[in-house]
Amino acid sequence: MGGYLDQYGAGEERRERIVKWIALGAAAAAILALALYFSFRNHRETQQAKLFLELLRKQQYRSAYQLWGCTPEQPCRDYNFDRFMEDWGPESGHGDPSAARIGSTRTCSGGVIYTIEFAQGEPVLLWVERRDRILSFAPWPVCNPRMAAPGPGGS
Questions:
Q1: How far apart are CA 122 and CA 93, in angstroms?
Q2: Any idea what DSSP says for residue 149?
Q3: Confidence at 148, pLDDT banded by 50, 70, 90
Q4: 71, 94, 115, 126: which one has the fewest Cβ atoms less than 10 Å from its Cβ?
Q5: Residue 133: exposed, middle, or buried by beta-carbon count in 10 A (0-12, 13-18, 19+)?
Q6: Averaged pLDDT for residues 62-79
Q7: CB of 137 within 8 A of CB of 131?
Q8: Strands 111-117 and 124-129: what pairing?
Q9: Helix (H, G, I), strand (E, B), or coil: what is residue 128?
Q10: 94: nearest Cα among 116, 113, 75
């Protein structure tokens, strides 16, 4: 016949296992949430950059120009459609966008900088604004202008 104290601590072991599984589940959920956040935090901006490259491939230059927040009727003050065509049209150094791809990505608080790599020619740093997903040339190669890479002078 079992004594009164034979089952002493059995409930405590079960409670410890439950607490351990809850802690492991919470840690796994936190890791999954972080992985999803870092995977999808730039999703909308990446889709905008991909759309731009796709429009260039299809030679829909007017639609691509509109992604810059400009229209032929109301061109951007410092970037009219003729200048856009010099940079992105078939006669430009990036005239064959079929092999263009998004290289590296740099996340900033106000937007994302994409390195657009072409089969020939220099890569282009493209900025996608988070607020409205308007495209432009990246104003600097890194997010903080004080940390920008030195210019051609080397300093």
A1: 8
A2: P
A3: very low
A4: 71
A5: middle
A6: 89
A7: no
A8: antiparallel
A9: strand
A10: 116
Residues with Cβ within 8 Å of 41's Cβ and at least 6 positions away in sequence, in order, are: 107
pLDDT band at 112 (very low <50, low <70, confident <90, very high): very high
Q: Which pair of tokens denotes residue 13? A: 């072991």
Q: What is the DSSP string of 28-75?
A: HHHHHHHHHHHHHTTHHHHHHHHHHHHHHHTT-HHHHHHTTT--SSS-
Residue 87 is encoded by which pair of tokens? 């940079």
Q: In which order are the strands placed within the sheet that holds 124-129?
A: 101-107, 111-117, 124-129, 135-137
| Residue 32 tokens, joined | 């999954």
**Cα dist from 64 to 9, 84, 85, whole Å:** 70, 9, 10
Give this prediction's pTM. 0.74
